[in-house]
Amino acid sequence: MKEKKSNNTRVINLAVGPLLFLLCTTLLPHQYFSTVAARGAIGTIAWMAYWWITGPVDFAVTGFLPVAVNAVIQMADMGLVIANYADEIILLLLGASIITASWELSGLDKRIASFFLVMIGNELRSQVVFWFLLTTVLSAVLPNAVVCAAITPIAVSMLRYLGMEDIGESRTGSMILMTIAYGAGVGGMASPLGGAMNLVTVQYLEEVTGKEYIYWHWVIRFLPIMAVVIISNLIYLVCRCKKGENLGGSREYFVRQYHSMGKMSGDEKWGLGLFLAATVLSFTRQLYQDYLPGLKPAYVFIICAIIAFVIVKRDGSRLITWKSAEVKIIWDLLYIYAGGLAAGTLINESGAGKAIGEAMAALHLDGGFPTIFVIVAVTLLMSDMTSNTATAAVAMPIVISMVQGIGLNPVPYIYVATIGVNLSYMLPTSIRAIPVGYGMKPRFMLRHGVWLTVISIVSLSVTAWLLVTYWPSFSTI
């Protein structure tokens, strides 16, 4: 009886997805979404979001919906949609997944896990604070995707060492992976180097002012905003951890386990060395990009993954083979991430993103708090549907023209839009696909993401209004 009820629920959820698509395609206001393509793009996002949350099919399968739907109702050039499934970040994630597959074969995963458990402790609140601050700091000067892709496997190794093979069924494991994705997203706002979306913002700032933008000015202007977002996010995440909740075991036990492992084997050193080499080269790209412009982080990870297949151990066997690697590669991760990118392509290429911006401009705002609130809310919600960079490219010119149309200085409102462009919490698109690929359920992220979205929109709208109103430097570059 229970199985029959479960099957009935699955059938209903399967049907609701395409029904949402049809409703969006027919009922969205034609005044703004004038084409079937634009309405269909929004409908595809709704369909994907519902299936990701309810799970009637595997999450990776939902990642292919943009291809299937676009083949029936062409919303964008199919070549552009398909290209997302071989995006640079997909290659980065594949390379990282291959390298870390060698960890499990050599036992390095257990060594790394016990090290972090000894260093941080097993209390969930301590773990959440550590991973959030670590990823926030790193993503302030490095691309968010690189940070999230490099840090998540380390945390996954720790969780699996503790017996959490199915992270989706573990509240504590899901909380840690979600925290890493959120921290990587938040940190990107701290400096122009935090991601391509910020470089898009800098480009528009230079265009409207006719001056070169000095990067440290960004850090100063966003310092109070970063303080609010870090504190508010951490308070929420820590409060969601129950008092005394831990990952299991005791610190003394993990100390004994760590010391009992003895010295690193050659296999472990190779696995760790390749991962560190890929990570360090990715994090220091600015030092060699003029000499090796093609050696981007994605290709660094792929090169190191290829090296892992070439290495021969002392006993004549290989460090890793494709047969041993393919069963450990997180294939779901690649297709969930690609699906989010493809959905973003539909939004932008179909004109749906521009239509959302035009609807915002039609509100005839006067530049006060309601204007700031709408800009933060719309850009933040758009970032959940598509990539942060795509949101910046679509939203910035609309915000500039809207503000200039009412005779105001666009600079502070560009900064305001940057807040929403950098933040997103609810759907497994962009870097938020990474924890889902490792097993976290999308509905877990949605449940917490809704609250953080509301908290962020309200607190940061108030903060931005105070800065625009009372801090003259916030209106300059």
From TrEMBL:
Residues 51-420 form the Citrate transporter-like domain. PANTHER family: SOLUTE CARRIER FAMILY 13 MEMBER (PTHR10283), SOLUTE CARRIER FAMILY 13 MEMBER 2 (PTHR10283:SF82). Keywords: Membrane, Transmembrane, Transmembrane helix, Transport. GO terms for cellular component: plasma membrane. Belongs to the SLC13A/DASS transporter (TC 2.A.47) family. NADC subfamily. It is found in: Membrane. It is a multi-pass membrane protein. The keyword Transmembrane helix applies. This is Solute carrier family 13 (Sodium-dependent dicarboxylate transporter), member 2/3/5. The chain crosses the membrane at residues 50-73, 85-108, 128-156, 176-195, 215-239, 270-288, 294-312, 333-353, 359-382, 389-407, 413-438, 450-471. Its main location: membrane. GO terms for molecular function: transmembrane transporter activity. It comes from Eubacterium pyruvativorans. Pfam families: CitMHS.
